[in-house]
# Entry
Amino acid sequence: MSEVEIQKLHESTIRKAVGPTILLGSGTYFDFEDPESSSITIEDVAYGLAFEGRCSGQCYSKRLKRRVFYSVAEHCVRMSHVVPPHLALEALMHEVGEAVCGDMTAPLKSMIPDYKAIEKRCEAAILKRFGVTITDPLEIKKADVRMLATERRDLLPWNGEDWSIGKGVDPYCFEIIPWSPDSAALAFINRYDEIVGQSHG
# Structure
């Protein structure tokens, strides 16, 4: 191997290990400066979201009367069942950026526009990798807000205070009893396979 080849290999290795990258569970690297080049898998997305807690992990189940873990993956799976069938995949995948960027709470995210821009670029790159286009962002947002109202009712110690989002929105009729992270990841993968299989059937 020539000195030039060794240098290129060295630079590539350093880039992967030291640059703005993370190593995914599948063994590939995700580059935050070039998310479009990522080989992220649906398992990476599912497990990344399943081990990411909604509401900064500050969930309390009124039914179970204790603190609980409620994952972003479960939020997405549940939401994929309440939207019209043609939007199910979009609902399932609407938080994919959080699989690599984490779930920063919306109030904090609104104060950090640079972070928001990076997350949006990562989200767009991952959606493109899986061939998903958000065709009806308004309908997806409405379902997301209604999911938040449901989560607030079931999983937060909310006492009716006014929030800037979700005011006057009715929760869904189902009650959320959170799944384990592993169960949420498997449910996400199975739901993805189900939706994609239907669209190709």
Notes: The chain is about 50% helix and 5% strand. The longest strand covers residues 21-23. The chain has a mean pLDDT of 90.
